[in-house]
Design brief:
alpha/beta; CBS-domain; four-stranded mixed β-sheet
Length: 196
């Protein structure tokens, strides 16, 4: 076919159906299913991001609009500074910050409540490839987290990168049952947060 020639067209008959995407994350899984079945692959789904200077109210609106419960905090794409989850937007910490700073809630930014990159738990993609959903659930429980990052090691001159995200909420949806997770304090600020 000539590369500049138009393609043939056709008229669609009555009753033609609309192709509908299959929600790849809605497939039912069991604890024995491959762990990759519950990972949001960031090479297939665009990462939801937010600037550290974004207000908490704006971050909440971004989460609602994008249908997510966690945002990557990024100043200079693609370098990640941390994450902010829906649970970080409201609570005792925010009220304490308002009181300590004699400020308003609307004055607080993502920077004030985000979990820094150095505090985040990640699973190596190579380990995840041979793991089950049960292994992932055990990891979430052990670390008391709602989210785990999946990292790929550096290759050649490239730094490590976050390849995916595992969300407790997503696993619960796919399993069809809740996963009880007890929050674990990993740092002194976490201890203070849990005691308040």
């Amino acid at each position: 076919m000539d590369p500049n020639s138009p393609l043939p067209t056709l008229r669609l008959p009555r009753g033609t159906a609309l192709a509908q995407s299959r929600d790849w994350q809605a497939e039912p899984v069991t604890l024995a299913s491959p762990a990759l079945d519950v990972m949001t692959d960031l090479t297939r789904v665009k990462a939801a991001t937010v600037s550290p200077s974004t207000t908490l109210r704006q971050a909440e609106q971004i989460m609602i609009y994008q249908g997510v419960r966690m945002l990557f905090v990024v100043s200079d794409m693609p370098a990640i500074e941390g994450i902010v989850a829906a649970t970080d937007l409201r609570g005792d910490l925010q009220m304490r910050l308002v009181q300590q700073r004699n400020a308003r809630y609307d004055d607080l930014s993502v920077r004030d409540v985000m979990a820094a990159l150095s505090m985040l738990d990640a699973i190596d993609m190579a380990d995840l490839k041979s793991a089950t959903v049960g292994n992932v659930v055990a990891t979430l429980r052990r670390h008391g987290r709602d989210h785990l990052l999946v990292a790929e090691g550096s290759t050649g001159h490239l730094p490590p990168r976050v390849r995916g995200v595992i969300s407790r909420t997503q696993i619960e949806r796919q399993l069809g049952s809740p996963i009880p997770v007890t929050e674990v304090a990993n740092t002194f600020p976490d201890v203070v947060k849990m005691l308040s």
